[in-house]
Specification:
mainly beta, three-stranded antiparallel sheet, 9 strands
Length: 182
């Protein structure tokens, strides 16, 4: 928007880790139905683990593209890289998140069913919108999940040790995030 500046954290400008024109997504999560552009900003010095929205990280949402002007934001040591989104129709939840959807007790008691759960279903660990979060250590939960940002070699971005950031938006529009890594 005219007059808008790059967000600051502790007196320093944040950098835009991800900018998404929502209309370019092959599937738009319900939480983003009224959003035209989303920009995820992070601070330059530390992962903002356990910090609320606006403290070391910030998501700006725009309901329309008209009137927006480019910000001159420095991406720091990270390389800008356009994402070519792909539609995925077979994304499946991980073990702990699947329990939120169905009782997996019978799968626990059947080795073939257990093997099928882990081998016959696809889980996509890259940066993605919608589907299910692809957890690394344990379930991050499904409630209000919108997207995940993976460590991306082409950009030079790494969440700690090759991790993923998961972003959640409540129906009232509040954002929260979680991160897992190896």
């Amino acid at each position: 928007m005219p007059g808008e500046t790059v967000p600051q954290w502790q007196g320093e400008p944040m950098f835009p880790l991800l900018q998404v024109r929502v209309s370019e997504l092959p599937v738009v999560p319900e939480a983003l139905a009224d959003i035209a552009l989303l920009v995820l900003f992070l601070n330059r010095h530390e992962y903002p683990f356990d910090r609320p929205h606006g403290e070391g990280w910030l998501i700006r949402e725009y309901t329309r593209l008209e009137g927006l002007v480019p910000l001159q934001a420095d991406s720091g040591p990270f390389r800008p890289f356009p994402i070519a989104w792909n539609r995925v129709d077979d994304d499946a939840p991980g073990w702990e998140d699947a329990w939120e959807l169905v009782d997996l007790g019978p799968v626990n008691d059947d080795e073939a069913a257990s093997n099928a759960f882990f081998n016959a279903f696809s889980r996509y660990g890259g940066t993605k919108f919608g589907g299910y979060p692809t957890e690394i250590q344990h379930g991050v939960g499904l409630q209000d999940y919108v997207f995940q940002v993976a460590s991306e070699e082409k950009v030079g971005w790494m969440w700690a040790d090759n991790g993923r950031g998961y972003f959640f938006r409540t129906p009232s529009g509040d954002w929260r995030w979680a991160c897992q890594f190896y």
